[in-house]
């Protein structure tokens, strides 16, 4: 080997190769990222009236929360300095989680762990994240190319006109957007109206520690437009009068290691500056976690989101675009139970977009909560364009939520979240592709249509059958309504209430058997490897199992 | 007519069955179906129990070989294409097997008299290109050490140490001569008898996700000892691409 080394050193090119390898070695083996949690906070003389924006205090009073609590106290600066003396470099410190991110070698982290004020150290992933986005042009299938038609699906899907007609436009609601950058949002004509009423209150780049967020990625520009942008005089999103805090917490298309703690830091910053809502179209998946970690308690971002919700912030999070990928399921922090996780539907079909991530969480909780159009007309750095992804469904719903909150001022974040779920098209039916469906503004003002006569659900000779009332087919307008374009939603739950199978079915006739569900209940529920004694009727009969069907605002349940 | 009636009798039940079946089947169109099972997770993945990925590598000889015959090390390349198969032991350690197609070329310098002049030619000849080459199946086995224990489902940073055997299927010799009239004459021999049918190597690899640098040390001879053909350098360094490892 010495001969080899000597030869290499004689040659410059080989030396460069060696240096590259050395750099990889250094990068990979010198430092790891850890989250260091502290035991206590010793800060005294904390003045919430100086620290918080008046709007934060107003939000807290309005929500019946204390002006300040233990979680608001800053991390003990002496602890931070002590850790900084040991670690190579450090990331953000979190008031809420009472800890900080550090980049340290194994020896350094051992030293840190032995400090008396350190409660625990947790390894964090070295690889960073990808934004939960799927930018791709879509084929224009509509002949109508008028400006209004461009935004019709995304806007009308949520019945934005109803909100506007009732004077709801997010006024007075402060929304923080956490994203990869807001390129040209300070100049783009889509935000002319927003700028005219000083709708962008504050900005901060958590990666470069400066105020300017208008360079870098344009994903945030598109997201912002889905709440408050305008296109040739038409609203792209539902809340053009909302106020915004723009935070850059993520690098686009690169892999760095400080983004998840930046996410938490930005949430704290947002809450400090009066945000009532956070709209975030970022998600973290395999780079750091396995699906089993998607339980709302594991990732730093999910823990930060849970704390933000406790502080009264309503968080809209993209479910992710993993539906057709190996990951398939929702991304974190969308796994947090107290955030509104938003999936996507395809406006052309009216049901789930294939790429929209599926629920449930790894501990079986329902996600996503609601869905919105996952193809949207958005502001791009140069002009406007069509983009796909739950990244855009999320701000569309955020705009909807802002309007609801404007209308129901004084309600808490969780009450508003509950209301939005109840305003959704399928509620109380849900599945793991659509959640409770698409939020509908008209239900806020006129209530849900009552319908308990659309169809009957019955068992006949072990077969689950549907008979749709003749009156349904007489009203042709019902058959073409958005999500309910003749779609029937059916699901099977086991005796424990766990959702085991769900279907979306396009109905073509008045009476038919739910063949897949019948087959599943007959044999499929035993799994592919289970041996079933066909003679044993008692074993075959799905005692305690339930079939629930939603169709045309009507829900029927059949209990075995 | 008789045959038509017979056909009708034969196929009428089938038509009736199809009519009834299709009537039932077309009454609904299941456009989405999911059977969620959060407990059923795959064992296959970059940081799961089992994993497989395609791999392609390119390397060059590093260092000089036997002084009796000079091999042009930078033009002496090897190319490998194959698959990597993984069995995870824990987050830090995994065992891999790597069967690959392997092509190695050993370019002979034309600066001095060569043994090839007597093996293949009737005297000293300077060629524009001259090389020995082997085509074969290379099978490496190695241990992979990861330091980022709690990483997600990706390969991460790693160090590999292992050994392998290269079964030479086709030992070759090739010489290329450009003539004064511009034409090119290529002389090639397949199945040349001077090369060993198996040679062995040890390897070290350092990589991150889809890219790695590989260092090979050959522990056996390329050429059969009885022919006294000088050996090329035992060291190879190269780069490797491993897609689908995130």
Describe the structure.
The complex is a heterodimer of chains A (560) and B (246). Chain A is an alpha/beta fold and 560 residues long. Chain A folds into three domains: 31-124, Alpha-Beta Plaits, CATH 3.30.70; 147-446, Rossmann fold (3-Layer(aba) Sandwich); 455-559, Sandwich (Immunoglobulin-like), CATH 2.60.40. Chain A contains 18 helices and 24 strands. In chain A, the strands form seven sheets. Chain A has a seven-stranded parallel beta sheet with strand order 7-10-6-11-13-14-15, sandwiched between helices. A four-stranded antiparallel beta sheet of chain A has the order 2-3-1-4, with helices on both faces. The relative contact order of chain A is 0.10. Chain B is mainly beta. Chain B has an eight-stranded antiparallel β-barrel with strand order 2-3-4-5-6-8-9-10. The longest helix of chain B has 24 residues, at 2-25. The chains are: A alpha/beta (560), B mainly beta (246).
Which architecture name of chain B does CATH use?
Beta Barrel
N→C terminal distance of chain A: 74 Å
Whole-Å distance between the termini of chain B? 68 Å
How many H/I helices of chain B?
Answer: 2
CATH class of chain B equals Mainly Beta
Could you spell the SSE succession of chain B in H and E letters?
A: HEEEEHEEEEEE
- Category from helices, strands and their pairing of chain A: alpha/beta
The neighbouring-strand order within the major sheet of chain A is 7-10-6-11-13-14-15
CATH architectural label of the largest domain in chain A: 3-Layer(aba) Sandwich
The portion of residues assigned to helices of chain B is 10-25%
User: What radius of gyration of chain B results from the CA coordinates?
Assistant: 29 Å
